[in-house]
Amino acid sequence: MTAACNGTGGIVAAVIIGLALLVVVPLVVDPIFLIELTSYVILAILALSLGLIWGYGGILCFGQSAFFGIGAYAYAIAVINMGDSTIPLILSIVVPALFAALLGYFLFYARITDVYFGVITLTVTLILYKLMGTTSGSAYTIGNAAIGGYNGIPAIPPLNLPGSPTTFLSLDGLFYAAGLTLLAVYVGLRLMLKSRFGQVVVAIRENERRAELLGYDARFYKLAAFTIGGGIAGLAGCLFANWGMFISPDVFGLAQSAQVIIWVIVGGTGTLLGPIVGCFLVQWIATQLGTQQVLNANLVLGTILIGFVLLVPKGITPTVLDLIERTCQRRSYAKPLVEKRSVS
Amino acid sequence: MDLLVVLSIEALRAVASLALISVGLAIIFGMMRVINLAHGEFLMLGGYAAIVATKAGINIWVSTLILAPLVVAIIGIIIERTVIRFLYGRPRDTMLATWGLSLFLVGITTTIFGNTTEGISAPAGSLQVGNYYIAAYSLIIVLIAIAVFAAIWAVFRFTRYGLIARSTMQNPEMAAALGVNPPAVYAATFGIGAGLAGLAGGVMAPITGIVPTIGAAYVAKAFITVIGGGPAVLAGTVSASVLFGAIDQIITYLSTPVIGEVALLAAAVILLRFMPQGVTGSFFRRAS
Description:
The complex is a heterodimer of chains A (344) and B (288).
Chain A: H1 7-28, H2 31-56, H3 64-82, H4 86-108, H5 114-133, E1 141-142, E2 145-146, E3 160-161, E4 164-168, H6 171-194, H7 196-206, H8 208-213, H9 218-244, H10 254-267, H11 273-290, H12 297-311, H13 316-331
Antiparallel strand pairs in A: 1-2, 3-4
Chain B: H1 2-32, H2 39-55, H3 60-82, H4 91-113, E1 126-129, E2 132-135, H5 136-158, H6 160-170, H7 172-177, H8 182-208, H9 215-229, H10 233-254, H11 257-274, H12 276-279, H13 282-287
Antiparallel strand pairs in B: 1-2
Helix pairs in contact in B: 1-5, 1-8, 1-9, 1-10, 2-3, 2-4, 2-8, 2-9, 3-8, 5-6, 6-8, 9-10, 9-11, 10-11
C-alpha cells in the first residue's frame, strides 16, 4: 500500500510508468509533436543534472548549459572525425566532466561562497560563448571538423550501433534512446542518493560544517557531485546535437543558462521529479509562445522566474509531493514517524 | 615612444572603462549585499536613454552624463520597491530574481526597440600623438572615471546622506532607532548604484553601440572586477580594474580581444583560488 512512498517501490513504480510512457506516447501523439517532445526529453536530462547539484548538492551553478554545450561540441567534433559514434559518445560525457572537475577544483577548494560560485559559473559560460563565436574560419578546424564560429557545426552524424556506422538512429529511434537515457539517469541518481555517497552529499547541503566535523571532506564530495552533474549535462548535450544535427555557441548563451535554472525552480528543487516536470512545462509554454508574435520569449521567461522566486519559491512538485506524502503517512503509522527526507 | 604613449592611453582607457562599468555594481553589492545580475541591463538601459535623447536633439553630453543616469536611477528605485526589497537577506533568491529581471528587461527593450544595433558617433574627434591618432573620447572616459570615483568617495565620506547610508548598512535596527528610515536609504542607495550603471552605459554607448542583449557583455566583466576587488567598495574596484584591465589590454594587444577576456577570467579564477580571503572578506560572510 505504501509502495509509492518508500524508496525501492518508488523506483520500481517510476521505471514501470516511464517504460509505459515510452511505449504509449509515440502511438498517440502526432509525429511532428513527437520530434518536439524528443527535445523536451533531452533537455529534461539537462534539468536533472542541475536538479542533482542544486537540489541535493546545494551548489547553485548558473552555467550548467556550459557542460551541455561542451558535451555537444565534444561529440560533434569527435564523430565528424571518427565516423563511428561510440567513442564520441563517451567523450561527450568525459570531456565536460573533466572540465567540471577542473573548474570545481578551483572554486570548491578556494571555499568561495555559493553566491560567488553562481557568478563565476555564469561568467565562464558567457566567456565560452564568445570564445566559440570567434572560431570561424579555416584556422579553427580540429581534424575534419570546422568549428564554424557563431554559425556552429552543421550536419553532425547521428549515433550509430557500436562498430557499424551505417546502422544509425532515426528520429523515432532518438525518442526511445532519449527516453531510456532519461529513465536510466533518473533511476541512477535515485540509487546514488540512497547510497552512502549520496547521503553525505545531502548532509553537506544541510549543514556543511557539521558534516566536516564528522570527518567528511565537503570540498571533495561537492566536487564529485559537480563532476557527475557535468557528465550528465554533457550526455544531454550529445543527444541534443543528435536531435538537431547541429550545434552553435547559442547553447552557451545567457538565455540557455537561465532556462535550465527556470526549469528547476519551476519544477522544484530538492526533488528529481521536479526538474523533469518543470522542463516539460516551461518548454511547452515556450513553444506555444514561439508561435505568436505579441510577447517576447525573454519577457515571459523573466516574468516566470521573478514570479516563482517571489511567490512559489519551493516550486510545483514539492508542494504536490508533500500532499501525497502526508496522505501516505496517515495510512501507515505503524512505521516510526522519524522525519525522513523523501528522495524522489 | 609614440607607440608607448598610445598604448598607455589605451590601457588607461581599459582600466577606466572597467572601473566605470563595475562601480554601480560594487555599490549595490558591497554596501547592500545584493547580487544584481540585471546590472548589465542597467547599463543597456543607460545606453538606450543616451541614444534616444541624443537622437531627439538633446546635447550629447547632457544626455550621456545627466539624462542616462537619471533615467536608470528612477528605474532602479522602482525595481527596488517592487522586487528587491522582498529579498533582503536571501542572496540566492536575489540572484535568481535579478536574473529574471535581466531577461525581462532584455525582452521589453527588444519589444520596443527591436533587435538591431543603435549607435551615436563619439564626440570630441581625435588627437595626434606623433604618427598615431587616438580618439579624444578615450581620454574623456578616463577623466569621467576619475571624477565619478572622487564624487562617490566625497559623498559617502563627507555628506549627511553618506553617513546615514553607511550606518544603515552596518546596523539597520540601530539606525532606525535613531530616526533613520532604512527602506528609504536602501531605495536611495540602490538608485545611486543603478544611476552609476546608467552613466557607464551612456558613456560607453558611443563606443560600443547598443543592442538589447549587450548587458551580457558587461555583466561578466563587472562581476569579475567586483569579486576580485573584495570587500572595500572603491579601493577594491579600482585595484581590480587596474589588475584586470592591464591583463586584458596586454593580452588583447598580443592576440585578440576575446582571448584578452578569457585571460581576464582565468586570472580572476586563479586569483580566487589563492586569495580567497581577500574575496570572501568578513563583509560578505555575514550576508550569506
